[in-house]
């Protein structure tokens, strides 16, 4: 095809139309929704989608509202639903107990993004938040640039603001290399020597601690094995840096999924407590959660003086036999 295929994909509860953009480059294909800039599918040749997705916008509700979406403007939890920005303490409406999760109910996952540019193998989606919309300061513009190339899906997330604010975006796609069912048989590796300790509310309780036991994913750990469950941020680096491979997900007979990112953290969430337990594993490349409340964490402050911020994530799908040749 010479142009992107754009088709209807339902509507939001408010009646706003949602579109699906189908992308293809060789054997690799993907589809993206304008709702939340959701990654709806990612597949190699005629195999099943390794990204968990649903047919239409109406299916992305309730417990599935974050599935595949770009979450923000601040991914993860802000403890106490408040943060100091400059000399001002900003308070937000909590949506996860006493905490703010993924930017709240008006977060980027709930918005219908506009199609700014598209082609057979790429699409750029854009959305804007007014000053104080969603509770955060700044007139902000966000872009999600998806592109298929060289057997991989590239995602660049670009953020701009006209005044100091907090920004920590994350792709929240869930992956299941079987295409459906539980994660049993999947093995996940993450190249991280440390992890953030968390309390009962899943907020970090302090700085990084060495990985150990089932939280040590450096050599790989089976998912949905009846042992440990995961909703932890793995500390990849002390700051955003150059693109590097950080995670590898495998399942017997399925293509291997590899993830590379510029981000200093990778939130691993296996959905073990979900109504459909362990239907997929989310690998959320981002800054460390609750960074605004921990001075030693990588900063998520975005200012107009710093210009646009870009974070990059690349997912590569390949068969094992391709790795051995």
List the helices and strands and how they pair.
Elements: E1 5-11, E2 17-25, E3 28-33, E4 39-44, E5 70-71, E6 77-78, E7 82-85, E8 88-91, E9 100-101, E10 114-119, E11 122-129, E12 140-149, E13 152-161, E14 165-166, E15 170-171, E16 174-175, E17 187-190, E18 194-195, E19 209-210, E20 221-222, E21 231-235, E22 244-250, E23 256-261, E24 265-269, E25 281-286, E26 301-302, E27 309-318, H1 320-324
Antiparallel strand pairs: 1-2, 2-3, 3-4, 5-15, 6-9, 7-8, 10-11, 11-12, 12-13, 13-27, 14-26, 16-25, 17-20, 17-22, 18-19, 18-21, 21-24, 22-23, 23-27, 24-25
- Could you name the CATH class? Mainly Beta
Mean pLDDT: 95
CATH topology: Beta-galactosidase, Chain A, domain 5
Tell me about the largest β-sheet. 9 strands, antiparallel
Q: For this entry, what is the oligomeric state of its chains?
A: single chain
Give the SSE order as H and E letters. Answer: EEEEEEEEEEEEEEEEEEEEEEEEEEEH
